[in-house]
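Can you give me the bound-state structure? Components:
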Amino acid sequence: MLQKTFETPAEQEIATDLPTSPCYSPVCLHRCRCFLAPEPASGDEKDGALRYARNETIYARGDKALYIYKVLEGSVRLSRVYADGRRQIVNFHASGDVFGSEFAAVYSTTAEAINDILVLRCPRLCVHHLAAADPDVNRKRLMMLSRSLDEAERHITMLGHQSARQRIASFFLSLDAKIRRDGSYAFDLPIGRQDIADYLGLTIETTCRALSDLKRRRILDTPSRRQIVVRDHAALKAIAEGAAI
Amino acid sequence: MLQKTFETPAEQEIATDLPTSPCYSPVCLHRCRCFLAPEPASGDEKDGALRYARNETIYARGDKALYIYKVLEGSVRLSRVYADGRRQIVNFHASGDVFGSEFAAVYSTTAEAINDILVLRCPRLCVHHLAAADPDVNRKRLMMLSRSLDEAERHITMLGHQSARQRIASFFLSLDAKIRRDGSYAFDLPIGRQDIADYLGLTIETTCRALSDLKRRRILDTPSRRQIVVRDHAALKAIAEGAAI
DNA sequence: CGGCATGTTGAAACGTTTCAACGAGAGTGG
DNA sequence: CCACTCTCGTTGAAACGTTTCAACATGCCG
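Here's the bound-state model for the whole set.
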């Protein structure tokens, strides 16, 4: 279960796309175009989609980056594993998100299924081929990477100087923005406590305590393990932004 | 000196390049091509380069992202400033590096000169124009963004679960790889302690203590404030990777 | 040489981690 | 259907590391 691709500072070369023959199959090209649409699954997209079971590895850090993926159902975590066994989750991806779209020769993170998932997979060479014909393809990839970078910078800032309670508050605020359905204040949490902890750079115990603290303050509620209700959005925001309380 | 663009979770829209007329001037186009070369300054590049004084702001987070920059001389820091006055440095850029190349409508970070610097500036629309003619332009931008994302992920992992001593060790290891000239084990540190602390997510005091600790262990030496000598590269690496010592 | 920014050290306060125990829920088989 | 088990989540108390506040040292520039 542990990755062999440990984190060691300084290595990893960035390279251009891998030099093999592209795939011209119309099915494949059609599928690749789906990556450009920001929306989640649309009917025929699901043809040829892949299933992964909970905790299954989609690709590992260091693997040749041959494919680009799009989540159709379920959630995916991108992480780096360390020699000491600890794990840093770098990003989560939900339905509609594209991942593995980096430009390096090998994947920089390990991608795993959080629950049972359905993903679309497209060979990078195919995307490359598409990009030669349509300059918009690389523009869209630039946009996606740019957004990832922005999220990464926000993540850095959070880890750099937010307390445990602030991190939890920020985390649920962003989840709230991403996941919340129309009027309801409740949403399903697709991930477990350990994953939250590994994303926030905390231990699972500290994560629990911070959560309990927010529950005691009646800012959050967790009717069940995997459900979150944001009771006081304003207070949550105040805490995330550094209110003394 | 404080930015008005505070960090608040959730906002910032990503947009395509800004819709104004591009610049077709040959000088400008030539300059833009320089961005594609990974090398530092080359003779005629310096025509029309801009100077910024130490601590001067090149652009602020939230400003319209009109230009892409390349460092010719000196160092630049990219940071985000918080309501509480603290600052997280997201990245450093030295001679030869390109920055501000994100695809969003506004800059996601503030760029400041660490010392007196010389930079090349190119309108993004111009780059855009170039990209329409030459698909390689967007490929190169993809590569640069991809590398930035990889660095950001490494940064996240460091902030997520490395101790102060480990962070310092990792930091000097990567600096060593970047800056070191040929045979010598010493290199000049282009930045001050506060900048290091703000990058590592530590206070300046903790940074100092960790440094002193490594000096006591004879792993590092600082002949002067801005000079670093790596005495025991292997030990530094061992610490960065989590050695108990 | 003084003055000011920058860097360094110490001691107490604080927050997070660690280690340990316990609770709650989901799935399985009797 | 209940009891069993296993994983996941929660809480407590002590240990640990970082921050804070304060003082002092050093280097740089006028």
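A couple of observations. Chain A touches chain B through 52 residues (CB under 8 Å). Residues 192-194, 204-205, 208-209, 211-212, 225 of chain A lie near DNA strand D (CB under 10 Å from a C1').
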